[in-house]
């Protein structure tokens, strides 16, 4: 795990000296539009804290704040063999995780199976039968010679689901390209169990989890300072451990107030009422043209799915509507296609090391068929920096809000996802924003840790799912049956 030192200077100096005045004015307008100053970060964070609390109340709020029925952090002493199943949009991953007798150590065997596109819009039974087939194949190839007792399984089901129990989950809505009739509004566990039983696969579903909760628990297994798990990828989310006494919507359960409960925030929905987030006209277009307008306001400003689209919308606007008419006289039909650029395109623009931005010029030529002038390249580079920086700074508001709510003065945050792992300077920009929001003093030396460090997470959907299955078995054996629908499966 790597600490986040101060931001490295960009690898190229770049010069605005040759940029014409009208383009410079446009760059200044974009800077004013996309820059989020310290005062704004602080006001967003304060509103975020109150919205987290609102989500835990009986009335609820925009942020769902779903209790997950994962009720402790791991100690690192957990042992046993568990299966984990991760049902993603592209692949199905099956893992066998052996939690060893060495503290915080595990062995893992895994296989990936492609999720056929036709299954994603097909029949529900076909989907569950395919998943059962993959599990059967996995067990036969790794345990061909042994007669197995039932293996306990943690199922990472990273779609919005309501969980009244850890071995139960009602799908609220499909995402990631799935659209299968007859599953939304239903508990997915009996469907899964029926397919498993039909094949006689020796598996018991012990825990249904979200990947973000898995990220929190897997990271805490190897690092006891981990208190928050985050995903910054195609979408965004966070999980943390709350006390049941601070969750009014669970008051009817009469759980001891200091009992821990992992909360899957689903914080992409923060500020759906548009009270504090600094939305630009381009953000408003993204929301209006999205499949679910008015939802996931925070996610639409920071997640990988939308960063490239924001960039594209600005460039089309500068071509069509502003006096400067960038890409003048050129056919920009390819650029007009919505979602044609993803966050990896922005990454390449920001990573271009050359003084004359020749790699960016080649990128526009090859992907979009557009020839770009040197001054236009400077604008393009600055725009990518502005969009990437805003995303990182806004993401820090969520982390700071959980830290303030829980009064964490120092801790580690485990983060995963393509934007966190691959987008240039995302970590440093986020760390700088945390420093501003939480008023940390300047570091005395570069190697010093920040009070709250955001670090690369452990494997949430594999190891995390297995650990949550282990923790659930342990608490049931100790007599804690809260949030258990089928105690007979935990014998």
Which key terms come to mind for this protein?
single chain, 14 helices, disordered N terminus, alpha/beta, 491 residues, five-stranded mixed beta sheet, six-stranded mixed beta sheet
In brief, what are we looking at here?
The protein is built from 14 helices and 13 strands. It has helices at residues 21-34, 38-56, 124-142, 188-199, 211-222, 281-288, 299-302, 304-320, 343-351, 358-368, 374-406, 418-422, 426-437, 460-477; strands spanning 66-67, 80-87, 91-99, 106-114, 151-156, 161-162, 170-171, 203-209, 226-232, 236-243, 260-264, 411-416, 452-456. Strand 3 and strand 4 (106-114) form a beta hairpin.
**DSSP strand (E) fraction?**
15-25%
* Amino- and carboxy-terminal Cα gap: 38 Å
Shape: globular
Q: Summarize the biggest pleated sheet.
A: 6 strands, mixed
Uncertain runs: 1-9
Q: What's the gyration radius in Å?
A: 24 Å
Q: What is the chain-wise order of helices and strands? A: HHEEEEHEEEHEHEEEHHHHHHEHHEH
| Helix coverage percent | 25-40%
Number of strands: 13
């Amino acid at each position: 795990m790597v600490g986040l030192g101060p931001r490295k200077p960009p690898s190229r100096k770049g010069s605005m000296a040759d940029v014409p005045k009208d383009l410079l004015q446009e760059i200044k307008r974009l800077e004013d539009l996309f820059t989020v100053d310290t005062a704004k970060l602080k006001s967003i964070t304060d509103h975020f804290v109150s919205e987290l609390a609102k989500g835990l109340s009986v009335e609820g709020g925009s942020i769902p704040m779903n209790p997950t029925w994962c009720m402790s952090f791991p100690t690192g002493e957990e042992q046993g063999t568990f299966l984990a199943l991760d049902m993603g949009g592209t692949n199905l991953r099956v893992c066998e995780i052996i939690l060893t007798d060495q503290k915080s150590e595990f062995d893992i065997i895994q296989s990936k199976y492609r999720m056929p596109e036709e299954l994603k819009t097909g029949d529900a039974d076909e989907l569950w039968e395919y998943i059962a087939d993959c599990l059967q194949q996995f067990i036969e190839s790794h345990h061909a010679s042994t007669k197995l007792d039932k293996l306990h399984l943690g199922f990472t089901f990273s779609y919005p689901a309501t969980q009244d129990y850890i071995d139960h989950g009602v799908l609220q809505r499909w995402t990631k390209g799935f659209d299968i009739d007859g599953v939304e509004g239903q508990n997915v566990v009996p469907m899964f169990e029926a397919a498993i039983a039909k094949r006689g696969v020796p598996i018991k579903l012990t825990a249904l989890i979200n990947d973000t909760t898995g990220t929190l628990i897997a990271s805490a297994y190897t690092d006891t300072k981990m208190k928050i798990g985050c995903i910054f990828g195609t979408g965004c989310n966070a999980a943390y451990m709350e006390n049941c006494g601070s969750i009014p919507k669970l008051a009817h359960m009469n759980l001891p107030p200091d009992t821990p409960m992992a909360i899957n925030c689903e914080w992409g929905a923060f500020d759906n009422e548009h009270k504090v987030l600094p939305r630009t006209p381009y953000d408003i277009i993204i929301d209006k043209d999205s499949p679910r307008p008015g939802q996931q306001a925070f996610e639409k400003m920071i997640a990988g799915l939308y960063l490239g689209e924001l960039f594209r919308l600005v460039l089309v606007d500068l071509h069509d509507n502003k006096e400067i008419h960038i890409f003048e006289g050129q056919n920009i039909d390819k650029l007009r296609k919505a979602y044609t650029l993803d966050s990896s395109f922005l990454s390449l623009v920001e990573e271009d090391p050359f003084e004359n931005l020749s790699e960016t010029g080649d990128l526009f030529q090859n992907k979009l068929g557009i020839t770009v002038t040197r001054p236009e390249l400077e604008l393009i580079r600055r725009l990518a920096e502005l969009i990437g920086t805003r995303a990182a700074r806004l993401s820090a508001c969520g982390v700071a809000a959980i830290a303030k709510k829980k009064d964490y003065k120092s801790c580690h945050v485990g983060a995963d996802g393509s934007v966190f792992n691959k987008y240039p300077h995302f970590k440093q920009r986020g760390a700088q924003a945390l420093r501003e929001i939480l008023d940390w003093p300047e570091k005395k030396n570069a190697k010093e840790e920040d009070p709250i460090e955001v670090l690369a997470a452990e494997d949430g959907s594999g190891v995390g799912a297995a650990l949550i299955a282990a923790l659930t078995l342990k608490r049931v054996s100790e007599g804690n049956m809260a949030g258990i629908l089928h105690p007979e499966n935990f014998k």
